[in-house]
Amino acid sequence: MLLFSIITAAVAPGLALLTYFYLKDRYDSEPLHMVVKVFLLGFLVVLPVMILQRGLTLWLGDHPLISSVGISAGVEEFFKWFVLYHIIYNHTEFDEPYDGILYSVAISLGFATVENIMYAFAGHASFGYMLMRALLPVSGHAMFGVMMGYYLGRAKFSQGRKTRYFIIVSLVFPMFWHGIYDLILNTMTHYWVWFAVPLMAGLWYTGMGKVRRANNRSPFRFVKREEEVNL
After folding, report:
1. Does residue 228 form part of some domain?
2. I need a labelling partner for 20 at 20 to 30 A (CA). Which of 35, 48, 110, 206 fits?
């Protein structure tokens, strides 16, 4: 019973957020099996990320800036971006800008869910600690995913130099903000909450704006409006 409670507490935030973003797709919902597959890809990304992070830490040391921006945020966001770009970006189901957000959030929350399970089994399964992880780290991964996916969506439906620009931004922006978040946690022992919470609030505010703009760029919005008028 205890084992079930721990797993539930670790998995629930990621599934809840994934459901929320799945329902935010206003015009052309993605196949559920595709979203679940990408979510599970986030599970698989954890192992190579951990191996590379361990090797880089032994090589470069644990300086807060290098550890936060390069080893933690850099490696994690790169692996998620790499998988999305090579598996999802050219997939036929990626047919509207919001799809980039949904699939990026899915792989990010899959990754965050495994992290949550690992922390829970490491002895951090108290209600307060798991609630904090749901509100900050898990939520943060979702917001970094929104950022990555929004710009992948812009790249997918742009042409020429704009495509390359948005592809680069889709990696750099989430890597930068993830690094800032980790740097706050790694350098501010007592007052980190006063910086992390406003940062997360700002990311949610801008993230919801990106969700709205991505939906507004959907090529299916006119089709749905015509269907509603015909009804």
Report:
1. no
2. 48
| Cα gap 93→76, rounded to integer Å | 25
- Dihedral sign, Cα of residue 126, residue 42, residue 168, residue 53: positive
Give the pLDDT confidence of 148-176 residue by residue, as tens digits: 999 999 999 998 899 999 999 999 999 99
Tally of CB atoms within 10 A around 48: 12
The residue segments making up the domain with residue 33 are 2-220
pTM of the model: 0.91
Q: Give the CB-side neighbour count of residue 28, counting CA atoms within 13 A.
A: 18
Question: Is 186 among the domain residues?
Answer: yes
Residue with tokens 């022992």: 189
Distance CA 124, CA 103 (A): 29
Render pLDDT for 57-72 as a digit per residue (tens, 0 to 9).
Answer: 999 888 888 999 999 9
The number of domains in the chain is: 1
C-alpha 79/C-alpha 218 separation (Å) is 27
CA nearest to 222, candidates 25, 24, 27, 22: 27
Whole-angstrom distance, CA of residue 96 vs CA of residue 215: 8
- Asked if residue 230 belongs to a domain, the reply is no
